[in-house]
Amino acid sequence: MPALRGAGLAIRGLTKRFDRKTAVDDLSFEVARGEIVAVAGPNGAGKSTTLMCLAGLVRPDAGTIAFDGAALGPERGRTIALIPETPEVYPLLTVWEHLAFVAALTRQPPGWEERAETLLARLALRAERDALGNTLSKGMRQKTLLAATVLGGTPVLLLDEPMIGLDPLGQRELRALMTALRADGHAILVSTHLLENAAAMCDRMLVLDRGRLVASGTIDELRARRGDGSIEDVFLDVTRS
User: Fold this and answer.
1) Model pTM?
2) SS3 letters across the chain
3) In the chain, what are the domains?
4) Mean pLDDT on 45-63
């Protein structure tokens, strides 16, 4: 696991309540640059709420969110981007127009078109360059949002259940893309129910239950809790206590 040393995402004491229900309870963790961290947990564990708090879509009741040692406020869209389980794109914009829109919004310097073309090639989106958003599959919508996010220079990526609804080829392509983004120094946090899939691509896993962090570590460290049992065994152990 890469050492954080202030470079990356650091969460301390994150708490979110909805009326009398505590959805996220004093949660602290880190995601370094160049690291993929999976967050798992049963339904209602607080995974999606955590991601929405980090992205600034839900206001937490307590806690701090920092990146590279600097605290982030509610307006942190230039630092943290969330790609939800059901990715939404502008239906009447083409893939290329999405990139042009983000380039204008983030005031990209001249020459952004070349970087955008490289992203399209890297994400196997060239054939869809002029396709409207409302014609894209889920996988293509994810890729379009990822391309726009990377072009805009957002260093922290949050993905909520990204593998759901993708066929095996789409899952493989997404894993390859996330590995490439990790190599480029992005800090990536992935919420998922697909434990073995997460184990194949993540550097560490966080397990939440009722809003609290109940286990964390590398896959080997978590498996060692059960004498090298499966990651599902560990998950069931720590969420049944």
Assistant:
1) 0.87
2) CCCCCCCEEEEEEEEEEECCEEEEEEEEEEEECCEEEEEECCCCCCHHHHHHHHHCCCCCCEEEEEECCEECCCCCCCCEEEECCCCCCCCCCEHHHHHHHHHHHCCCCCCHHHHHHHHHHHCCCHHHCCCEHHHCCHHHHHHHHHHHHHHCCCCEEEEECCCCCCCHHHHHHHHHHHHHHHHCCCEEEEECCCHHHHHHHCCEEEEEECCEEEEEECHHHHHHCCCCCCHHHHHHHHHHC
3) 1-74+195-241 (3.40.50.300)
4) 94
